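Task: sequence design from structure.
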């Protein structure tokens, strides 16, 4: 297999309702986005780390921590309703116009500060070794899920038997920390999860996603308190 050129892409818009300005809020002494930038820069799999943002302050913070911000994202791609796929397409096409072509991109949400360079490299190795078109990061769960129906609550999983938690086979939840995707496949389908997909497993603790003030507090405890006592 020939060596691929890999883009590490970090999407970070300025607007955020749950935690205002969360991408540059301090977490364990540095801005939230800096955790993802550092992980991407330390990962041997990634050739270039680019932040896609519509916000000048985020751009300045990103560059000060070693990421590239070679373009600003259009405002129409930075709304609450804007899906991720057009953001990726815009980044790939803009970079291509500037003479940068990539075979693979690794999408790294800045809201996953506990994802490390080791996680990125392991996920990319899985992508390469398995000949997959995409890899998603997940964590295992053994929880039962239910839905409301006119006839009452209905169990959605683990319906075959009332097994103890420790006896169940795990199900997996996408944690949003890492998406490794073949560029050609993405441009054909406009899907980050496309073709043959493999799962890269992380722990639930490593999968904390910053969406609320509680998530930010929890990540702070893990990074500053839990890690020192492990």
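Answer:
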């Amino acid at each position: 297999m020939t060596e691929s050129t890999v883009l590490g892409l970090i999407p970070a818009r300025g607007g955020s309702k749950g935690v205002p300005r969360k991408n540059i809020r301090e977490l364990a002494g540095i801005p939230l986005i800096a955790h993802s930038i550092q992980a991407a820069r330390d990962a041997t799999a990634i050739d270039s780390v680019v932040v896609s943002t519509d916000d000048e302050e985020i751009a300045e913070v990103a560059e000060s921590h070693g990421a590239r911000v070679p373009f600003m994202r259009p405002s129409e791609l930075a709304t609450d309703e804007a899906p991720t796929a057009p953001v990726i397409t815009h980044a790939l096409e803009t970079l291509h116009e500037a003479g940068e072509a990539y075979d693979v991109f690794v999408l790294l949400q800045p809201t996953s500060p506990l994802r490390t360079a080791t996680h990125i490299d392991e996920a990319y190795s899985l992508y390469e070794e398995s000949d997959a078109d995409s890899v998603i990061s997940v964590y295992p769960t053994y929880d039962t899920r239910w839905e409301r129906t006119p006839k009452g609550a209905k169990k959605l999983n683990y319906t075959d038997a009332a097994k103890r938690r420790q006896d169940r086979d795990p199900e997996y939840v996408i944690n949003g920390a890492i998406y490794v995707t073949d560029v050609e496949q993405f441009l054909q389908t406009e899907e980050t999860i496309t073709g043959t997909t493999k799962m890269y497993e992380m722990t639930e603790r490593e999968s904390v996603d910053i969406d609320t003030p509680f998530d930010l507090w929890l990540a702070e405890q893990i990074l500053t308190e839990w890690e020192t006592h492990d």
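The longest strand covers residues 171-182.
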